[in-house]
Amino acid sequence: MAYRSAITGRYVSKAVYARHPKTTVKESSGASKGNKTVNRSAITGQFVTDTYAASHPKTTLTEKV
């Protein structure tokens, strides 16, 4: 399992994930990445709109699916 910081976008360790659960996310292992982008909240894990992601950049991730 990979963990990624919502603030920097860098991969982090499981220990960092445990200390900062609101600003890190656990990534699923997708077999193929496409061209569609989605935004996801690092706090809730739910998908959010582009507008929300733009106004909350430190707690949202933009991913290609």
- Round the Cα radius of gyration to an integer and report it: 11 Å
Q: Helix segment count?
A: 2
Distance between the termini: 17 Å
* Quaternary structure annotation: single chain
For the secondary structure, the number of strands is 6
Question: On the 0-100 scale, what is the average pLDDT?
Answer: 85
The helix/strand order is EEHEEEHE
Beta-strand content estimate? 25-35%
Helix content: 10-25%
Explain what you see.
- The protein is globular and about 30 Å long.
- The chain has two helices and six strands; from the N terminus they run ββαβββαβ.
- The chain has helices at residues 14-19, 50-55; strands spanning 2-5, 11-12, 24-27, 37-41, 47-48, 60-64.
- The two termini are 17 Å apart.
- It is 18% helix and 34% strand.
- With 65 residues, the chain is an alpha+beta fold.
- The strands form two sheets. It has a three-stranded antiparallel beta sheet with strand order 2-1-3.
Secondary structure elements and pairings:
Blueprint: E1 2-5, E2 11-12, H1 14-19, E3 24-27, E4 37-41, E5 47-48, H2 50-55, E6 60-64
Keywords:
65 residues; alpha+beta; 3-stranded antiparallel β-sheet; 2 helices; 6 strands; 18% helix
Quick summary of this structure?
This protein has 65 residues and is α+β, with helices and mostly antiparallel strands. The chain contains 2 helices and 6 strands; from the N terminus they run ββαβββαβ.
